[in-house]
Amino acid sequence: MGYRAINFSAGPSTLPEEVLKKAAAEMLNYEGTGESVMEMSHRSAEFQKIIDDAEQNLRDLMNIPDDYYVLFLQGGGTLQFSMVPINLLTNSKKADYIITGNWAKKAYEEAQKFGDIRALASSADKNFSYIPKFKKEDIREDVDYVYVCYNNTIYGTHYNEVPDVGDHLLVADMSSCVLSEEIDVTKFGLIYAGAQKNVAPAGVTIVIVRKDLVGHAPENTPIYLDYAIHAKKGSMYNTPPCYSIYMAGEVFKYLKSIGGVKEMHERDVRKAGKLYDYLDHSEMFTPTVAKEDRSLMNVTFVTGDPELDKKFVAGARERGMLNLAGHRTTGGMRASIYNAMPEEGVDALIAYMKEFEDENK
Ligand code: PMP
Fold first, then answer.
1. Structural domains of the chain, ranges and CATH numbers in brackets
2. Per the UniProt record, which residue ranges are transmembrane (predicted)?
3. Which residues, at least 6 apart from 129, have a Cβ–Cβ distance to it below 8 Å?
């Protein structure tokens, strides 16, 4: 801590200090090339190694089988809201979506441009404070896929088990939880994640997609929106977001060096556990999410008094704890404690919460 603020931003968000230091050291001269990765041709042997290593390390970390492509794309999570339906609505052109918040809703609305899209379940009735249940029998029999947002960044909810969709294809937006827990990739047809939370600076979006699902987009699909093009060209049909891919690769190496996703998950459980435990016993702060659906990454809470919330957030800022205000649509507070948030950051937040509680009783 010290010279760096404790950054609770929901994304772009804090990155591992070790990775930032290595990137800084390599900024002007990457491995003796005399160039920065920012300046390097994506067609160079050096960059080819960067992207190949990044892919391999992600495959190792997530145990991604060979029958899945790993793509590094641009356009953020938002472009996946349209690429998913364009590429996967290939038979009935029907899909069922679970509405668990803003990002799921945006994906659902975008998909409606491309097919017959239905909301299978929603938690809008309680301001998205829980993960809605559904029965697999309620899924329309002939859907091309079922879509979920695995971790709801704004509301702080998370699927604590993989939803049972029977034999249907499952698609998940894991933008705000990728690499924070071990996931059985084979249960999903497609997983995507924008990088700017657990992976890298903004700019790259990871798509993990089963190979047999690729190559069926309509003929008039704009070239960038067809997974097949990116798969065929090793994510380099056009200039990729080189620096973000390099940073993602460095984060993957760092994760491997600490013991992989299993170790990371243990750390995440410990950090979030401390914070929820404090919230559950606090007389001032209340967590906003149903216990069984809580996110390890985005912890949302309120005092019940919007003025007090504001005072809390302002006081935190004075103490070097940034970005604790909840999303503009929810108010209250949100502490995003992604993989790179050190445990001391959470400890400092809890210490301040105690102090604030004593002073404002
Ligand atoms: N999905 C989730 C879960 C998100 O949190 C976000 C943005 N924070 C998005 C999608 C949209 O991503 P982007 O801003 O990269 O388009």
1. 19-257 (3.40.640.10), 260-359 (3.90.1150.10)
2. none
3. 123, 155, 157, 288, 289, 290
Q: Where are the beta strands (DSSP E) in 111-189?
A: 116-122, 145-149, 151-152, 157-158, 170-173
Predicted complex ipTM: 0.99
Q: Which of 13, 73, 83, 103 to mutate to test the pocket of ligand 1 (most atoms within 8 A of CB)?
A: 103
* Helix residue ranges per DSSP H, the chain: 17-25, 45-62, 76-88, 102-111, 227-232, 242-258, 260-281, 306-318, 343-359
Pocket test for ligand 1, best of 74, 97, 105, 176 (most atoms within 8 A of CB): 176
pLDDT tens across 291-322, in order? 999 999 999 999 999 999 999 999 999 999 99
Q: How far is the CA of 199 from the centre of ligand 1 (A)?
A: 13
User: Scanning the structure block, which residue is given the tokens 């509405």?
Assistant: 99
Q: Check whether 238 is labelled as a binding-site residue.
A: yes
